[in-house]
Amino acid sequence: MRKVSAATVATIMAIALYFTLFWGYDALRVLTSPTYGLDDVWRSQFVFGIGSYFKLSPMGLMKLAAFFGAMKLAVALACAVHVADRLRSLAGGTANSDILEGGLIVVVAVSLASVGPSVWSQHAELLREQVLQLLLAALAVGLCIVERSFAPRSGAPSIAALRVERLSASH
Fold this sequence. Notes:
Number of domains: 1
Order of helices and strands: HHHHHH
Number of strands: 0
């Protein structure tokens, strides 16, 4: 069976590194700020948009901003674990992309939650930033699926293989 190309692996690594660095920095900035990043008007527009939709109090806005900061930190850590796993797999073995895929699902959820307020406020720059992150996450998940489909099967045999084995044993 064919192996996945080096370009696919490099693209997955680059996207995981992107989310590790940029979302990690943003999460640390939000979580170390006394106002949980709400003082940065540009990056907190989606928090204000979601907060106005749900009619959140100022304390509710801070909790929402802290929640998004924690989600971004979780994504950054998941991507960092995947980068370390990829580097470990260079020495031998295969990398497990399940953690990365879980982190990218959170990226999709956060990006979709952020796109709504950007559309409602007709803010094209914020929308562009969120759509870019959404597309990067979708690309990485697609490449992980391609990589998984070309991976050699190991472990338990499939149901079809068991049926063939039973049929051959009965004759």
